[in-house]
Amino acid sequence: MEINKVYLGDCIEVMKGFPDETMDLIFADPPFNIGIKYDIYNDNMSYEEYYEWSNRWIKECYRILKRRGSIYIAIGDEFAGEISIILKKTGFYFRNWIIWYYTFGQNQRKKFNRAHTHILYFTKDKEHFVFNDKDIRIPSARQTVYRDKRANPIGKIPDDVWEFSRVCGTFKERIGHHPCQMPEDLLDRIIRTSSNIGDIVLDPFGGTGTTSAIAKKLGRKYITIEISKKYYDIILKRLNGRISEMKQTRSNNTTHQNLLFDIDNFTETQ
Ligand SMILES: C[S@@+](CC[C@H](N)C(=O)[O-])C[C@H]1O[C@@H](n2cnc3c(N)ncnc32)[C@H](O)[C@@H]1O
To answer: Which residue has its alpha carbon closest to ligand 1 atom 7?
Structure first.
């Protein structure tokens, strides 16, 4: 197993090659099985297939997670219940059912607009795990609204409803045309909370490499896996700093959409 590495391949097959109990933190943002158009992956399995596939990759995560490690899984309404059951049946302990509430959700025609994703937070051990509360505290209403002298001066642990904007197509944070890029602030909170400097953070579904980019920025080690060569290339460019370079050098003489197109289309090696 190599550290600070982007693997190209199927996450179950790649994880099979990793030793037991080596990861400190796993963040997984799998395809939600709702027909999203990815580069090569077909996000449209039958119910049984998706359940069985989820069961297999979650079991592999359990095997390679350290005894004091944590796992966070992002998942849509359609399979949140099933993924929670699989996590419990696999042996993980439930800690929080986090709601990521976002602005800029997609407008619907015949149902209410969706403005949230579930983030299921579980640990391998019931009592012993990393939870760096001091690194993620925020000002409390007692401090900011009521100016209450009894308020804890170091703030409070955030609630289990998190508000971060989605990364829309027009945002500066955007990396190419991947359909599901996660916001950096969301990964920042998870990685600070549940890992320490030097720990290994694994993301089995790399996408644009948000988890690895933030792990690297925060002094953690990263491993990620991506099945599409196109997205794998984007992750390499992001981790090598090429995308920030392109954004800086070209921001004045190209449109945002042309920049995204260029990011998608130049190649980089590991
Ligand atoms: C929801 S996206 C992840 C987005 C990522 N969190 C980000 O911030 O960019 C899921 C990704 O998993 C990849 N994928 C699908 N099946 C996979 C598999 N079996 N092994 C590895 N990657 C896979 C898809 O190509 C897609 O890029």
So the answer is: 181
pLDDT tens per residue across span 189-211? 999 999 999 999 999 999 999 99
Residue with CA closest to ligand 1 atom 5: 207
Helix (H) or strand (E) holding 201: strand 200-203
Q: Give the Å distance between the CA of 208 and the centre of ligand 1.
A: 8
Q: What number does the ligand 1 atom closest to the CA of 38 have?
A: 25
- Burial of 173 from C-beta contacts in 10 A (0-12 / 13-18 / 19+): middle
Atom 2, ligand 1: residue with shortest CA distance = 207
User: Residue 209 falls within a domain, yes or no?
Assistant: yes
For residue 105, give its domain range: 5-265
| Ligand 1 atom having least distance to the Cα of 32 | 1
Residue 54 lies in a domain: yes
- Per-residue pLDDT, averaged over 87-102, amounts to 98
Question: Ligand 1, atom 13: nearest CA belongs to which residue?
Answer: 205
- Look at residue 270 and tell me if it is in a domain: no
Residue 42, strand partner residues: 37
Residue 253 falls within a domain, yes or no? yes
Q: Would you state the pLDDT for residue 270?
A: 61
pTM for this prediction: 0.93
CATH number, residue 51 = 3.40.50.150
Other beta carbons within 10 angstroms of residue 132's beta carbon come to 13
CA of 145 to the centre of ligand 1 (A): 41
Please tell me the total count of domains within the chain.
1
Q: How many CA atoms lie within 13 A of 202 on its CB side?
A: 29
Q: Is the pLDDT of residue 63 over 70?
A: yes
